[in-house]
Amino acid sequence: MSLVSLRNVGKTYQSRLGAAYTAVRGFEMEIEPGEFICLLGTSGCGKTTVLNMLAGFEMPTEGSISIGGAQVQGPGADRGVVFQGDDSLYEWLTALENIEFGLKMRGVAKAERRDRAHRFLELVGLKGQERKHPSELSGGMKQRIQIARVLANEPAMLLMDEPFGALDAQTRSVMQQELLRIWQETRKSVLFITHDIDEAVTLASRIGVMHAGPASKLKGVIPVSISGERNRTSDDFIAIYRQVYGMIREEVALAMQRQG
Ligand SMILES: Nc1ncnc2c1ncn2[C@@H]1O[C@H](COP(=O)(O)OP(=O)(O)O)[C@@H](O)[C@H]1O
Ligand SMILES: [Mg+2]
Question: How far apart (Å, rounded) are the C-alpha atoms in residues 141 and 131?
Answer without folding.
Answer: 13
